[in-house]
Structures are given as structure tokens and as C-alpha cells.
């Protein structure tokens, strides 16, 4: 599996991906899921992928080779929307080529891409592109996308992130979201690729790979576990005494009755 | 969907379940997923269920009716293990009755139960019982089970819980695990049923239903979101300056190279 998350915020974008692939528990490998497309101060896109690796690598290869669809590729697309269309068309070309053979082996055509960035003169934009080649764009109300093993790392994003969140806080939040996933699911693994983009820069602000030895990430994950335990301990305990039953944690104004109890 | 979690700890047990069922987004209902079986100071079991409601209700009905399998039911089973076998056999009886008809409608035979408690003279024990009627028991190393929408609420458990955790802390942690799930997945919903059991008591320590109006749960969920944001803000930001690149968040000793960048 895979976990990738990207946020498109007022001040820029954050992309974070793991690098583990697996086909069963005994076939584990490390593959980069992030790739950056950069044309000097004209456009910069970051793409992350999940799903069948043979599919996602083929799609990536077409994009890297600059293959044109109706005359358009990532380098000459007029808008980020048009660039996302290029990614979608590359997916459809791989689908046309491989789906029948995959299905005959009982394998679904399965791939997902997060694609985003900025073309000079346009705002920064983020897209979630599906196996069918169609896609949705993020908005200020729904400003992040996840692909792969998304559930473990979703609560922290839902609790902390909004469109006005700073890039620093968003980066920490993405790293914690990833760490929650790493801790609870062995199909997601280090190293991580992190890309932070400041809007209108049209160049990488930060693009680094983070492994087990990275001091900041090690500090963050240790500190986080510790702080979580601290706050949960600092929150007032439910008090089980009869009096508190009535006030703190009680059935009063409860719309269901007591828990069904069968006695013998 | 459903989310249920149970912890079997040194000092006792905590069970927590939601009450939402859904068949698609337009067929949402409230059904209790927790039931308690109690025989005065002799035995006390708590059972929670997920999966197909028609199946889980049938299984529950057989257990409530005291149906015997090879002469054994929940009221006369000699051990909690034997009681878990009774639940497994009830599942198999429903399976024998309904599976063919379900399959002919392209519906899987799908149910999961968490079942645990204590019989006088034996320690408190917790089981995760599958659709096939087989089951596993928790251990001090793996002291909790989840069924249903388990992923959202797993990271907090993995970070905080161990076998020595107090019942108060475990209860708070289960409530936060549930709240993370409620916040990120609309197929899980209030009210909640909470049962706390102190080992060797062979009676309910606390068995309450928690709805939107419950003051303690409201306080906990508001406070938690706020505290999470506070700690994440209090953690040192990654510093993007060139110098700090080399020390705090850098590629040094990284086992992968830089993120692949395609230039044009």
C-alpha cells in the first residue's frame, strides 16, 4: 500500500508520500511515489501516485517523455487544469493498453494520482485524479486530498487543518498524519518524500527525503506520542461516583434507554 | 457501518460501541450493537457486533433465548472460552440457514463480534469472533480489539494503550478513538454505549449510553480538538533556513537520493 497526502492552502502547498510498495507481506519494496516536473520559473508540478505500480510507472513514463495528447503535454499546457487533463489522458492510454490483460488475470485497473502545482500567471491548484482519468480539484472548504491508506491519518487533518493554516503547521500536521499511518499499518513505510511549495514562487521551497535518521522527524514522532499521552492524562477523568453519574457522564437527556441487559 | 472497540487490561475491561447502521447513505438507522448478559455474581459478558444486521440480530436472538449447542449456552458454559464457542456456534447456525440465500443475492455472509467478560473463578477474558465462528483471544501484548470502521481510531490506541493502562485512561482513550472516527466517517454515529468492567466484580461498574447532550463527552471532544492544535503548534517548526536544512530537517544520511525532478 501507500499513503500520500497533499494540502492546497492559502499560502502554498504541502505534498508528502511514503515509499513502500507491497504485493502481499513477503514482497515489499521501496519505490518513490513523488515526482516533480519543473520548467524554470514557468511551471512546477508535483505528482504522487498510489495503486498498481506497473500502471503508475507507465503513466509517469509517458509524462516524463513529454508525450502529447491532442498536442498538449505538461510542458505546454495552458493551465494546471489542462495539465491534469494530460495526466488523465495518459491514464486512459495505459488503461486502453493494459486493462484487458489485467482483467484476464483478475486484477483491477487501479491507480490514483494527486497532482498539483502552479503555472505562471495562474494560482496554485491541486487535483485528485482517478483510475478513469477524471479528476476533482481542491477548494478552500476541502483543501486536502489523500490517496492510499488514508483513514489512519485523516482525524488529525480534520481536526487541525483549514485553508488559512500556515505552511509550517500544515507540514507538521502532514508529518504527524503520516506517522499515525506508519505506526498503525505496516504496508506504509519510510523513507518519506516531502515537498513544500510557497505560492507564486514557481520553484521548490523545500524538497527533501526523510528517513529513519532524520533528526526532525524522529523528534516529532517521539514528542507527539509523549504529548498525546500527556494531554489525555491531563483531561479530567470521568468520575464514576454516583453523584457524578448524574452530572458529568450520565444518561440524563439520553435519547436511548439503558444498554440492553439480559439476566438469568 | 459501525465502530466498536474493547480493551482487556490488567484492571478490567472497557467496551464502547456506536449505534449507527446504514445500507447506503439514504438508509440510516439507530440500532444498539452492545448487549450485556448477566447472571447474578456468577458471570457477566458484554457483546458487540458489526456487519450485516440481519445476521447479528439472529445470532443475538439465539443467545438471548439461551439456545444450547451440545448442551452448552452462555448461562452454563464452564469458561469464557466455552461461552465464546457458543457464540461461534450460533454464528454457524445462522450461516447454515441464511448463507445460500444471501449469496444468491450477491450478499456476503458478514458479521464480527467482540465478546468478553468474566465467569466467577476465572480471569476476565476478551475474544474477537469472526464470520466463520472461529475466534482469537486478546493477550497482554495485544490487549484491544476493534470491529467495523477501525482505522481512524487506531493510532490513538497504538500510542497510548498498554496492558497496565488504568481503566479511567483507557475509557478516555476509547472515547477519543470513537470521536476521531465520528469526525472522519459519517457511517459511524451517536449515541454511544459504554460499559466499564472492573475485574473480579462480576457486575457492571458503569454501563451508560452517551448522546449529543452528554456533558462529559461534549467536553472531551471539544477539549481534545483544541489541545491537539495546541500541541502541534507548540512543537518546534521545521526551520527552512539553509543552515537548518543541514541539521534539523536534512537529507544527510538519507538512504534515498533527492526527490526525482524532471526539468524542461
Which short descriptors sum up this protein?
homodimer, 264 residues, Glutamine Phosphoribosylpyrophosphate, subunit 1, domain 1, 5-stranded antiparallel β-sheet
Termini Cα gap of chain A: 48 Å
How much helix is in the residues of chain A? 25-40%
Oligomer: homodimer
Q: Give the tally of structural domains of chain A.
A: 1
Broad shape of chain A: globular
Number of strands of chain A: 13
**Whole-number average pLDDT of chain A?**
92
Task: Write up what this structure looks like.
Chains A, B: Keywords: Hydrolase, Protease, Proteasome. Chains A, B: GO terms for molecular function: peptidase activity. Chains A, B: This is Putative proteasome-type protease. Chains A, B: InterPro entries: Ntn_hydrolases_N, UCP009120_prtse. The structure is a homodimer. Chain A has about 260 residues and is an alpha+beta fold. Chain A has one domain: Aminohydrolase, N-terminal nucleophile (Ntn) domain (Glutamine Phosphoribosylpyrophosphate, subunit 1, domain 1), CATH 3.60.20.10. Helices cover about 35% and strands about 25% of the residues of chain A. Chain A is built from 6 helices and 13 strands. In chain A, strands 10-1-2-11-12 form a 5-stranded antiparallel beta sheet, covered by helices on one side. In chain A, strands 5-6-7-8-9 form a 5-stranded antiparallel beta sheet, covered by helices on one side. In chain A, strands 3-4 form a two-stranded antiparallel sheet. Chain A is globular, with a radius of gyration of 22 Å. The model of chain A is unreliable at about 240-250 (pLDDT under 50). Chains A and B meet through β5, α3, α4, β11 and β12 of A and β5, α3, α4, β11 and β12 of B.
Amino acid at each position: 500500500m501507500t499513503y500520500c497526502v497533499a494540502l492546497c492552502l492559502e499560502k502554498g502547498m504541502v505534498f508528502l508520500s511514503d515509499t513502500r510498495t507491497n504485493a502481499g507481506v513477503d514482497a515489499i519494496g521501496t519505490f518513490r511515489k513523488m515526482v516533480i516536473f519543473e520548467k524554470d520559473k514557468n511551471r512546477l508540478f508535483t505528482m504522487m501516485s498510489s495503486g498498481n505500480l506497473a500502471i503508475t510507472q507507465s503513466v509517469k513514463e509517458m509524462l516524463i517523455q513529454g508525450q502529447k495528447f491532442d498536442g498538449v503535454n505538461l510542458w505546454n499546457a495552458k493551465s494546471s487544469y489542462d495539465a491534469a487533463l494530460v495526466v488523465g489522458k495518459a491514464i486512459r492510454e495505459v488503461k486502453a493498453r493494459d486493462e484487458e490483460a489485467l482483467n484476464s488475470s483478475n486484477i483491477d485497473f487501479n491507480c490514483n494520482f494527486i497532482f498539483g502545482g502552479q503555472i505562471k500567471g495562474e494560482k496554485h491548484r491541486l487535483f485528485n485524479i482517478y483510475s478513469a482519468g477524471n479528476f476533482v480539484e481542491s477548494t478552500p472548504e476541502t483543501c486536502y486530498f489523500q490517496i492510499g491508506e488514508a483513514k489512519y491519518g485523516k482525524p488529525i487533518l480534520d481536526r487541525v487543518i483549514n485553508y488559512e493554516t500556515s505552511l509550517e503547521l500544515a507540514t507538521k500536521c502532514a508529518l504527524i498524519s503520516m506517522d499515525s499511518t506508519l505506526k498503525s499499518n505496516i504496508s506504509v513505510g519510510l523513507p518519506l518524500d516531502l515537498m513544500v511549495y510557497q505560492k507564486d514562487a514557481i520553484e521548490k521551497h523545500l524538497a527533501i527525503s526523510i528517513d529513519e535518521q532524520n533528526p526532525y522527524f524522529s523528534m516529532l514522532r517521539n514528542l507527539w506520542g509523549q504529548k498525546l499521552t500527556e494531554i489525555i492524562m491531563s483531561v479530567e477523568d470521568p468520575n464514576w461516583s454516583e453523584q457524578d453519574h448524574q452530572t458529568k457522564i450520565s444518561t440524563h437527556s439520553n435519547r436511548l434507554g439503558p444498554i440492553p441487559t439480559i439476566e438469568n
